[in-house]
Amino acid sequence: MHPGRAYEALLERLEDLELNALDDAREGQAIRRVSLDEL
Description:
1 helix
């Protein structure tokens, strides 16, 4: 694998791990729906 592609794949994997950790931390919290106008 080209070093640049390997680095990109590593960064993507790191981002996935961070998003999974964030999702795990938010598990069990109430979901609050908002409209775009509220943002």
